[in-house]
Amino acid sequence: MSDAAPATPRKSSLATRVVPWLIALACFVYLYFRIDAAAARQGSSVVPYLAEVFARVSWTRWLALMIPYSLFFLVIDSAVVWRVINWFNARVAYTAILPVRASTYIISILNEQVGKGAMAVYLNRRDGVPGWQVGSSMLFIMFCELLYLTMWATIGVTLRWDSLPAVFHAIPWVAAGVAAFFALHLLYFSGSILPGSQIRNREILHAFRQARIGHYLGIILLRSPALLMAVVVYTLALRLFGVSVGFVEMLGYLPVIFFGAAVPGPMRSVAITLWVTLFPDNAGEMAAFGLVQHNFFIFFNAAIGMLFLRRANREIFGATTPGN
After folding, report:
1. For residue 287, what is the enclosing H or E element?
2. 268 pLDDT tier (thresholds 50, 70, 90)
3. How many CB atoms are closer than 10 A to CB 159?
4. Count of beta carbons in the 10 Å neighbourhood of residue 259
């Protein structure tokens, strides 16, 4: 590790703090006018219209879908983090990663990156792993997420080409660009191109220097069951809101929606807006669906994290012994 004095933390720029709220504001203004128009067509106003949508849903059946899915996601998500850390950082048991990963969902309500930072603190205290190297592993996971969402979106669009909006027909071109970038990425980090470049030697790129194509494929395969389960759960949940869609068609929609959910902004506003855009004839149902789906997932995962918080605090801040 460097002997240089640690850099003074910099405050986030005004743009970094304001832009997500501006994005959310634009989304909610758009949603309001779409929902207001749908309500007017039924001779109602926005609030009674949305209240009727919520009243029609069987919430017990909806919870019966969402709770197991959230637990399943935790198992898969923890497995991904565990696998990557064991590849590139240190030998850690899955049972040691799961409670720490679960507790980071609490922080992730406000900031996903701060949540990932808790993993860095844990491994630094437990095994002395430099924080930059753990940060590199988190970047590797995010990069693999881009790859697997692109792959599944392409599969879904190909299977339902004629039934999806025309804008989705750009996805195979996007996938081709991602594939080309990935090929160059592999060549660069293997030293086959630009062998004199020193950028690849930075600590934050530690995982990428170690990774081979099998590591990328392994994470895509390990992560994919969560997406396929989401396709089933979201399709069945959407039917509870009175909108029928097929499983294969949902496979075309959902990866794109998940990309939207990654856009910074309160209440996953971009993801909610995408649902309404994709189903313009059911503006109220889709706004309600997007709101409860994405925000229940965030807050229920945080509730799961609360169950593990005491152990996670002990693991991170208490005395730890390597290998435990």
Report:
1. helix 283-317
2. confident
3. 14
4. 17
The mean pLDDT value for 279-289 works out to 89
Helical segments of 89-212, H only:
94-108, 112-127, 131-159, 171-189, 206-210
The 8-class DSSP code of residue 209 comes to H
Secondary structure letter of residue 192 according to DSSP: S
Residue 89 burial (C-beta neighbours within 10 Å; 0-12, 13-18, 19+): buried
**Contact assessment for residue 96 and residue 318, using Cβ atoms and an 8 Å cutoff:** no
Cα angle vertex 246, ends 240, 248, to 5°?
135
Q: String of b and e for 210-229 (b: at least 16 CB within 10 Å)?
A: bbeeebbebbbebbeebbee
Per the listing, tokens 């949902």 go with 250
Tokens 């309600």 belong to which residue? 288
H helices of 160-204, in order, are: 171-189
Taking a C-beta distance cutoff of 8 angstroms, is the pair 286, 276 a contact? yes
Asked if 164 and 274 count as a contact pair (C-beta separation under 8 A), the reply is no
37: Cβ contacts below 8 Å, ≥ 6 apart: 283
Distances in Å between the Cα of 118 and the Cα atoms of 69, 74, 102, 230 are: 24, 16, 11, 26
Residue 108 CA from chain centroid, whole number:
11
Q: How confident is the model over 200-213, as pLDDT tens digits?
A: 888 889 999 999 99
The letter for the amino acid at 244 is S
Q: Whole-model pTM?
A: 0.83
- Sorted by sequence, the CB contacts under 8 Å of residue 253 that are 6+ apart come out as 156, 164, 245, 278
Structure tokens at 143: 């990069």
